[in-house]
Each structure stands twice: as C-alpha cells, then as structure tokens.
Amino acid sequence: MRYMLLRRSDPAHEAGLPLSPAGRAALASYTGAMADAGILRACEHLLPSASGVRLRIDSGGVTRADGPFPETRSLLAGFAVIDVGSKDEALEWAARWPPGEAGAAEVEVRLSGCPGGCANVQAADQPDASGQRYAILLRSSIELENETPVARARLDALDAHNAAEASVGVLLGADGLRASALGARVNLASGKLTVVDGPFTEIKEMIAGYWLIRAPSLQDAIAWATRNPYPVGPPVEVEIRQLAELTDAAGAFTPELRAAEQHMRASGLDAGMRAQLAGGAPVPR
C-alpha cells in the first residue's frame, strides 16, 4: 500500500530558517532508514510559500493569489511517499519523523490513489534536464472528500495527458490521495505523541492529489496547471510550490549527511530528495 506522509509547516520553515547540523543529520538518518528498508519512493522539500501561487480555475477564467500565505499550519514543508503493508506501519514511520528545533512536528498520513483508479506515471529519464521543479497541489472539496465517482472518460483523459507530459520529461510524478477518513495525523509536541484518525473537517486546507513538474519558470508552471485536465471541476483550486534543488554545499556536509547522500545516489532516488540534505538549503522541520 502506498502512503504519503505530509509534513506540515511551521513559522521557522516559512521564514526559511535552516535546521541545525544535528537536525539535518537526524533527517538524513530518517530518510536513509526508509531507503534502507526499501519503502521510500519519493521525498521532497517545498520552499516557503513566498515562492508559491494559488489558482482558482473556473469557467470564467483564472484567479491568482501570490504567497506568502498566512495560515502556516495548513501549508506543507515537505512530504515522503512510502510503500508499506498497512496504515499502522505508515503511522509508525510518521511518528519517527524528526521534530524541528522547537521539538514539535505534525505529519499527516494519507492513503495514495484515485478512487476510480488512475495509471502510474512513468517519468522519462533526463539526467541533464534544466528548469525548476514545482509541485501542483490539488485542494480538496466536498466531492473529493466524499469520493464522489468521476466519469471514466475524465480519468482516461487525465491518464493520457499525464503519460504524454511524462514522456517529454515535464511531468515527474503524480498521484491522488484518498479521503481523509482513511488517514490520520501524528502530532509530536513536548515529547508526547498523539495520533488523531480522520476524517478531518478543514476540507479546503487538505490536499486531494499532486503533480510534480519541471518548468522553465513559475509562469510556465502556472500555464501548465491552468491547462491540466483535472478529474473534477470546474471550479478547481490548486497551490503551486517550488521544490528545493540539490545545491553545492559539500563543505557543510557532516559524515552522516555524506553517508546518506551516497546511499541515496546508490539507490537511484531523485535528486530533489537529496536537496533536503544540502546544508545551504532549508529543510522540512
């Protein structure tokens, strides 16, 4: 079973503050353990929402709102995608996510997939690709939370579009997220662990799916998101966030970070995952 672990943001992440060397080492150890266990499929860090844009796409056109966004707790700092045997196992890994400098973290655990079924994205291998990477985050709705059936023709159109965009190296990954009733939230604060099962009430703050793309600029990412054939809507609301890239910060690597970096390279994981370990870039707290 595939689950997405969504690490919620906090004021320190939104301010762009990096973790301490010890915090980076803890995160490197955590992601390295998931890679060692053979369950890690993706791990990404989102830049603060100042780099982001929100779009409302409806029959009348597109309404744009630029970041930063005020509701920090509903924002994402990063996420991991893992393949595990059960929800309980996913919760165990979520509970191990290293807390930030303040000793607190909130991780949402969501079952991946489309209720009507959707094809896997097979991204083209382009090691020398240029451009920035962006996450297109589909905001949830009552229909999506209730898993209202979607016409097969719309899902087929989306699958065909995803395949075409992946074949030319634009689309790097995509998946839906099932209703929050199938998920849970793990809170780590003051040394205490709390698990709260879904469903959750703040529907518009939740994510129902995502696309990871490579584009020359934010404007190109906006254009891509505007023409994307979403399985629902209109209207559709999406948030576009730039992903961190691996920077040349070798001098800031501790031995632990170097070992994790080498492990991830050997495992063939995406370079964006390794960006979390770069000493010059902020990482999920």
What does this structure look like?
The structure is a single chain. This protein is α+β, with helices and mostly antiparallel strands and 285 residues long. The protein has one domain: Alpha-Beta Plaits, CATH 3.30.70. The chain is 27% helix and 29% strand. The chain has helices at residues 11-14, 21-36, 87-95, 142-145, 152-167, 218-227, 255-267, 271-274, and strands at residues 2-8, 40-45, 53-58, 61-66, 76-83, 104-111, 132-139, 171-176, 184-189, 192-197, 207-215, 236-242. The relative contact order is 0.25.
Strand content: 25-35%
Write out the CATH superfamily name.
Dimeric alpha+beta barrel
Mean pLDDT: 85
- CATH architecture annotation: 2-Layer Sandwich
The main sheet comes to: 6 strands, antiparallel
- What's the helix count? 8
Helix and strand element order: EHHEEEEHEEHHEEEEHEHH
**Rg calculated over all Cα atoms:** 18 Å
Number of β-strand runs = 12
* General shape: globular
Pairing-aware structural class of the strands and helices? Answer: alpha+beta
Helix content: 25-40%
Oligomeric state: single chain
Number of domains: 1
Low-confidence parts? 248-259, 268-285
CATH class reads Alpha Beta
Distance between the termini: 26 Å
- Assign the CATH topology: Alpha-Beta Plaits
Main sheet: strand order:
2-5-1-6-9-10
